[in-house]
Amino acid sequence: MRALLQRVSRASVSVSGETLAGIDAGLLVLVCAMRGDTTAEAEALAARVSRLRIFRDDAGRMNRSILDTGGSALVVSQFTLGADTGRGNRPGFSRAAAPDEGERLYLHFAAHLAGLGVPVATGRFGADMDVSLVNQGPVTIWLECAPAAQSAATKGAD
């Protein structure tokens, strides 16, 4: 699974002018399930997001997690994070999970993140959403958890 995290002072998501969800300080998490991903990757990614120390401590250093700060997460599905731009000018999305599997893993990720103690709000899977945010810092971080079989193959190649 892939995620793009943005540290925000506020963020919201709307569909057709109707606000679905919003948060104050915390993280906007754009998530994409990739082909071959399982609930194990969703859970591993959620755990990393919950523990990633990208919030300032009293000394101004990025040394606190979203759990430490009591912040919230706005989790939005974004299959375009699975884009393959290696050929030509038109991205391909065949590496992203099929819609039914993508939705299942997106919801599992959000539920697991909430189960870890992070208040979670979500967008609407598959909808044409408008996302608004105030990126604080700005801080934007890319995370990826590859399927276990792919991770083992990659480790063997090092």
Your description of this structure?
The protein has 158 residues and is of the alpha/beta class. The chain has a single domain, classed as D-tyrosyl-tRNA(Tyr) deacylase (D-tyrosyl-trna(Tyr) Deacylase, Chain: A, 3-Layer(bba) Sandwich). Helices cover 28% and strands 35% of the residues. It has helices at 39-51, 66-69, 99-115, 148-157; strands spanning 2-15, 18-23, 26-32, 55-56, 62-64, 72-77, 120-122, 130-144. Strands 1, 2, 3, 6, 7 and 8 form a six-stranded mixed sheet that branches. The protein has a two-stranded antiparallel sheet with strand order 4-5. Helix 1 packs across helix 3. It starts with a strand and ends with a helix. The model is unreliable at 151-158 (pLDDT under 50).
Q: Strands, helices and their partners?
A:
Blueprint: E1 2-15, E2 18-23, E3 26-32, H1 39-51, E4 55-56, E5 62-64, H2 66-69, E6 72-77, H3 99-115, E7 120-122, E8 130-144, H4 148-157
Parallel strand pairs: 3-6, 6-7
Antiparallel strand pairs: 1-2, 1-3, 1-8, 4-5
Helix pairs in contact: 1-3
Short description:
The chain has 158 residues and is of the alpha/beta class.
Integer tally of domains:
1
DSSP strand content: 35-45%
* CATH homolog superfamily: D-tyrosyl-tRNA(Tyr) deacylase
One letter per element, helices H and strands E, the order comes to EEEHEEHEHEEH
Q: Biggest sheet: strands, sense, closure?
A: 6 strands, mixed
Q: Enter the CATH topology name.
A: D-tyrosyl-trna(Tyr) Deacylase, Chain: A
SS elements, strand count? 8
**Mean pLDDT over the full residue set:** 92
Which residues form runs of ≥5 with pLDDT under 50?
151-158
Shape: globular
Class by alpha and beta content: alpha/beta
Radius of gyration, taken over Cα atoms and rounded to an integer in Å:
16 Å
Provide the CATH top-level class: Alpha Beta
CATH architecture classification name: 3-Layer(bba) Sandwich
Helix content: 25-40%
**Total helical segments:** 4
Distance from N terminus to C terminus (CA atoms, Å) equals 21 Å
